[in-house]
Each structure stands twice: as structure tokens, then as C-alpha cells.
Amino acid sequence: MDETETLEGRCLCGAVRLTLTKAPADISACHCSMCRRWTGGAQWGFEAPADALTVEGPIATYRSSSFAERAWCRDCGTHLWLRDIGKACELTPGLFDGAAEIPLVREVYADRAFACVTLAGDHVRVTRADYERDRPFVEDAP
Amino acid sequence: MSAADRTRAQRREGGCLCGAVRFSARLPKPEIQACHCVQCQRWTGGGPLMVVKVEDLEMIGEDGLSAFRASEWGERLFCRTCGATITWRMAGAPTGEVAVGLLDDQSGLSVAREIFVDHRPGWLPVWEGATQSDEAEEMARLDAYLKDKAT
Prior knowledge:
Shape of chain A: globular
Number of helices of chain A: 2
Radius of gyration of chain B: 15 Å
Largest sheet of chain B: 5 strands, mixed
Number of strands of chain A: 11
Mean pLDDT of chain A: 89
Distance between the termini of chain B: 41 Å
Order of helices and strands of chain B: HEEEHEEEEEEEEH
Order of helices and strands of chain A: EEEHEEEEEEEEH
Strand order of the largest sheet of chain A: 6-7-8-9-4-3-10-11
Number of strands of chain B: 11
Number of helices of chain B: 3
Mean pLDDT of chain B: 91
Helix content of chain A: under 10%
Radius of gyration of chain A: 15 Å
Strand order of the largest sheet of chain B: 9-4-3-10-11
Strand content of chain B: 35-45%
Largest interface: A-B, 48 and 46 residues
Oligomer: heterodimer
Largest sheet of chain A: 8 strands, mixed
């Protein structure tokens, strides 16, 4: 995927359209308990700078913690993003064609992943303890 | 009693992220199906959609779900309040599977079947021991099912 290329993304029903002027170089996965419950598996995402992103359509959001929100298409339920309030959206790669070819470089809450979600490659794996050392706590009791 | 029998006998509980929808069900088999089709990838944000079969499903808050018909034959359910992925099912059919991430206890389950594997992203390895089928095989299976249903 050419990083200077403008990308058009959309949800499954097409009601939400996204334009991104900076293509993602790589994606991350999150296996925290909230992401697992929200997605049914793992959350995939890449950061989209606010000035590179335009979004139109019927968007619903849920404040899943004191510091973060999750967004989806109100009409079809496609997952759009996870973001810390006031920060850039972590867009889901599935919104864009060709996403399956973007390399995965990082897993967080790697020690909390479903036993059945073991990702290939020698990418960075961050444990829950490491991740929460300098960030807000999100997990339920162990 | 084998591990599989214990899983079958046990009811498991689950729910969406916000708790508007809660359920309990029996799991006939400790087996997950992972679907890599492009619709599931787009819908879940990357895929696969991982579901487990359920029996005797009792759901609380079902009227809090939205259903989207992405094809003539299937519909996709999600929580209207938090957007959590609930399941895919044949349109009009009862819910026979739920997303594995909804279960409070996901222990003892493993991926037994992968479908639409020709769309698998590079970062997901083949699940060892799982059967594999591609889009052509799955569409042929669906055609046969729909023809059978029509006659």
C-alpha cells in the first residue's frame, strides 16, 4: 500500500465512508478483555491522524471506559474505530480494501489473547503488565 | 467424563461489552469456526468472525440488538448500545452461533473449522488441526443449502 495514496474506506453497508490521505504502514492488535468482547476475537487498528481523515455517515459511539470510545456504523454494525478521548482514531483496517496485506507489527495484551488467536511473525508483543505500567487500567480483575 | 462431554453438559454465560444483552447457552462442541470472508473482515474491522455453536439459548435484552442484512440469505446482529459483534445467522433462522468473545469463560475452545481461507490476512497463521475450505467450496455449500431449502 503506497503511503502517499489517498484511500477510500467504507463500512459493510456503505453508509459510512472514510477518506484517508495517509495510508497505514502497519497495524496493531489488542487482546484486552474489552476488545475481545467487543469484536468477538481481537481488535485490529492503525492510527489515522485527524488531519488526514474525513468520515461521513451514521456513526454511533459507546464510551467503553473513562478515557476511550468505540465507534461503529449505526446501520450495519461495522466496527470503525477505538480512540482515547481527544486523540487520533485507531481505525479498523477492514474498512479498506487490501487491508489483509498490511503487516502487523505489534500486539498489546498479548498474554491475554484467546488461546485460539495466536498471531504469526516475530512482531513486538506487549504484556498486560507492561502496557498498564504507564497507561490507564482497563482490564477486569485477573 | 471426557473434556468434550463436560463442555456439552455445562451451560456458559456471556454478553456484550455494555451488558445490555446477556445470555446463557449450552455448547454442544468445544469448537470454533473462523470465517475469513471479506464481509466478515469488513464488518468486524479485520476478521475473522469467530463463532461457537450454541443450543438452548436464553437471551436477555434481545430487543437491544440490531440486525443487518448484508446478503439475501444472511443477517448480522450487533448490540445497538455498544456495537458489540453478536453473530451471523441465516435470515429468519434462530440464533445457532454466537461470537466466542462474548462468552465469560472461553476456556477449552479451539478453532476446528476455517472457512473462506483464501482471504486469510498475512498475520493469521493456519490453525493447526482445523479443517480448511475456500470461497468456492463455501459458496457451493451455500447454493446447495439454499436449493434444498427452496424445494
